[in-house]
Amino acid sequence: MTTTQNGINYYNIQTRYAGIAVTDTGGGGLPVLFIHGNSSCREVFRHQVNLLKGKYRVLALDLPGHGSSLNASEPRQVYSMPSYARMVIEVLEKIGINRVVVFGWSLGGHIGLEMLALFPKMIGLMICGTPPVSAGTDNVALGFRPGLGLAGKAEFTQEDIKVFVSDTYGVNASHESFMIEAVIRTDGLARQYMFEDFLSPQATNQKLLVETSETPLAIVNGADDPYINFDYIDGLNYRNLWKRKVFNLAGLGHAPFWEAPELFNPILVKFLKDFQ
């Protein structure tokens, strides 16, 4: 069943992983897919959807265990970056998307990195708040600052929710009710199992992917992001880094596209123009 509001379509796609809620502006423009972060939801991309609709076919979805999507029927198998990537690919294939640019934020960026090796129809990738790390706990730690404890915590207290929202969206960002509701709604196992898999020695070597993939990769971070190690991200040997630089937006945190869309969106628009 599809509902339409303000020219934007909302519907559900049944996948092997869970029932997935999708936002789709339709139209014949280049498809652009937005993938949200841990314990968030597709509403966080409101500023980008409203900007791009009409010129692009803008898509956004809620990951399994998040937002309006269903919880995974097999949590241990579904709540991981590789499985999320395969879920996204299944959704795109069922919709009939043959060419797409992806913007992935935080966890969504890691999902986009997984797609580099799985989905050649992804012709461009932009990531934000997403260090491309090698497998194993020590290698993952290189890409982040200390203090990621909440990212893999199954049960949140009220204080946890408050801290998570503040750190994730930015102290000075607009905090709306959907953000808190998204954290409360998230299946706690999605955090726990995803993080356990991320730290596994068998995890994907995302550092190797960005060093070898020919797919254009744009990186736009907030320069005050509390989670990521900037020296690590800035120092990798990327195969095809857009503009040959990592963009670090001064004074912004982990979600610059939400905190200051007037600064972030022009960079996104320039990246998308390269594929027209």
TrEMBL record:
Molecular function GO labels: hydrolase activity
Keyword Membrane annotated: no
Species this protein is from: Xenorhabdus eapokensis
Keywords: Hydrolase
Membrane-spanning ranges: none
Pfam families: Abhydrolase_6
A single cellular component GO annotation: membrane
Domain called AB hydrolase-1: residue spans: 32-265
Protein name: Epoxide hydrolase
Keyword Oxidoreductase: no
